[in-house]
Structure formats: structure tokens, C-alpha cells
Design a protein that fits this description.
- This protein folds into two domains: 217 residues, TIM Barrel; 52 residues.
- Strand 7, helix 9 and strand 8 form a beta-alpha-beta unit.
- An eight-stranded parallel β-barrel has the order 1-2-3-4-5-6-7-8, surrounded by five helices. Strands 9-10 form a two-stranded antiparallel ribbon.
- The longest helix has 20 residues.
- By secondary structure, the protein is α/β, with parallel strands linked by helices.
- The model has no long low-confidence stretch (mean pLDDT 96).
- The relative contact order is 0.12.
- The two termini are 16 Å apart.
Length: 281
């Protein structure tokens, strides 16, 4: 079972040499090299060469390398693609995706089949989530919760109740078409308790991981989105019990007073595969 962890996905300014250097040593699963929000307009053109040099130098290990370009409706988007499409990124992340046509526009510019992720941060994008996820080159969603909150004019709440419909729509579309789904950022990077609560909520909803704005958020996020020892133990016992019953041809498997069916075994195997992938990093 080929499973890659995406527990922690850290935004790094593509224009900052020091940040790019530091990212090589951070225990994150993926890095978003940001050319959009994290780079001022006067630095956007120079940021392309800075990022290209960093990617050419390597040293990012097994971390998934994601470039967030500027929107294709801006003066920088197409230039970002032209400068960096062959720079060695694993994924290109397109901001403010409204439709599958936006994904196709980036695909046409790339011309090389590089996987595309979509920032889901507009009401129209959420309403078109299924069509966006169905695009053959689309392999991941990132919830852009700050921009989405602005567009919805909703209030910030710890339980994210105003955001639930959007978050679940993102997940429904992602799971329907087998793409990665990454939760939005938690803005208060010094609030570990709040971060943990939001990570747990995102994990319980079904997200694969969370986008981060600061290295201080990495440890909590990696912990929450990884299988716990209790989950690993239960998974092993469920598989063993099911296989024993299957071999004997008698009765049904029961673990901790609960019936274990094939669907539980599939989930258990995914948990063990994820734990193994994390251990291998």
C-alpha cells in the first residue's frame, strides 16, 4: 500500500534565502514555496530565481516540494510557471481556483504533466469542488480558510462552525476523486492549545494534514495527524482477529466487543501503512 504522509505542510516564502535554508532541516512532510501572499509585489520577479536556485541546490530530502504561484489572472502567474515549471517541484499549487477551467489553464502552461493542487478559498470554488477534483491532473486540495472567511463574511470561531459546510464539501469532493485534502492554517502560531484543538478537528473531519505558517506548529501537527500507539495496536489486533476467523471459516471477528468486518480491516491496513511511511521518513 503506497501511502505518503501529508501531516504538516509548511508555507515558506520563496523569496527568503534564510527561510529556504532552514526548511531543509524541518521535520515537515511537505513545503509550499510561496510566491503569492508571502512575497511583496516588488520582490515577485526576483523570487523566481531565488527559489529556482534553492531547488537546484536540493537538500529537501523526502519532503514534497510544492510551488504556489501567483494567480494566472495576475501579471506574475504565467511568468512564475515559465520560470519554474522545470525547476524540480513535485506539485504546482494554484490560488483561488474557481473552476476546472482554471486548473486546465495551468495544465496548458505547464505542458509537462506536473501534478496540480488547488487552493479552495472562494465560494465559487467550493461550489465547483467536485468538478475541480475530477480534473485528471488535479491531485490535491488546500483549504484557504483565511480568504474563504473573508469572502463569506463569517466570524472566526474556535469550533469553525461557519466554515463546516465548506470544509466538508472540500473533503467530499476530494474523497470522491481520490485527491489529497489539506486543512487551512491556524493563525495564532504561539497558541499550542488552540492549534492542537483545530488539528484534532481537522483530523476527525478527515483531512490528511494541515497547512502551517510557522515552524513552531510542526511538532503538534505531526503528532495529531499521525496514528497513535493505541490506534496502531487496535489495527494490528483487528487484522489478526479477522484473518484468524477467515482461516477457520467460522463466526465473525470481534475485537474489544465490536464486530470487525472487511471495511474495518481496510482501514486498519491504511493505519499501519501510514505508520510505516512516517517511520521511514
Amino acid at each position: 500500500m503506497d501511502i505518503r504522509p501529508y501531516r504538516s505542510v509548511l508555507y515558506i516564502p520563496g523569496s527568503k534565502d534564510r527561510a529556504l535554508e532552514k526548511a531543509r532541516d524541518l521535520p515537515v512532510d511537505a513545503i509550499i514555496f510561496d510566491l503569492e501572499d508571502a512575497v511583496t509585489p516588488d520582490a515577485k520577479v526576483e523570487a523566481r530565481s531565488t527559489l529556482a536556485q534553492a531547488l537546484a541546490a536540493g537538500g529537501f530530502g523526502e519532503r514534497v516540494k510544492i510551488i504556489r504561484i501567483n494567480g494566472l489572472d495576475t501579471e506574475w502567474g504565467a511568468g512564475d510557471v515559465a520560470a519554474l515549471r522545470d525547476a524540480g517541484a513535485d506539485v504546482f499549487l494554484l490560488p483561488k481556483v474557481n473552476s476546472a477551467d482554471d486548473v486546465q489553464a495551468l495544465s496548458d502552461l505547464l505542458g509537462n504533466g506536473t501534478p496540480i493542487w488547488a487552493m479552495m478559498e472562494t465560494p465559487l470554488g467550493i461550489l465547483n469542488a467536485a468538478a475541480i477534483a475530477a480534473h485528471p491532473q488535479l491531485t490535491g486540495f488546500v483549504a484557504g480558510t483565511n480568504d474563504l472567511a473573508k469572502e463569506l463574511n463569517c466570524r472566526s470561531r474556535a469550533d469553525r462552525l461557519p466554515m463546516q459546510m465548506a470544509l466538508q464539501t472540500i473533503l467530499m469532493a476530494a474523497r470522491a476523486y481520490g485527491v489529497i485534502a489539506i486543512d487551512g492554517v491556524y493563525n495564532q502560531f504561539k497558541d499550542e492549545i488552540g492549534l492542537r484543538a483545530e488539528c484534532e478537528q481537522g483530523r476527525d473531519l478527515g483531512f490528511d494534514g494541515k497547512t502551517l505558517i510557522h515552524p513552531a506548529q510542526v511538532d503538534v501537527t505531526n503528532e495529531v495527524f499521525a496514528p497513535s500507539e493505541a490506534e496502531i495496536d487496535l489495527a494490528r489486533r483487528q487484522i489478526a482477529a479477522y484473518e484468524e476467523v477467515q482461516a477457520s471459516g467460522q463466526g465473525v471477528a470481534v475485537v474489544d466487543g465490536k464486530i470487525v468486518e472487511n471495511l474495518h480491516v481496510e482501514t486498519a491496513k491504511k493505519i499501519l501503512a501510514m505508520a510505516s511511511a512516517i517511520a521511514a521518513l
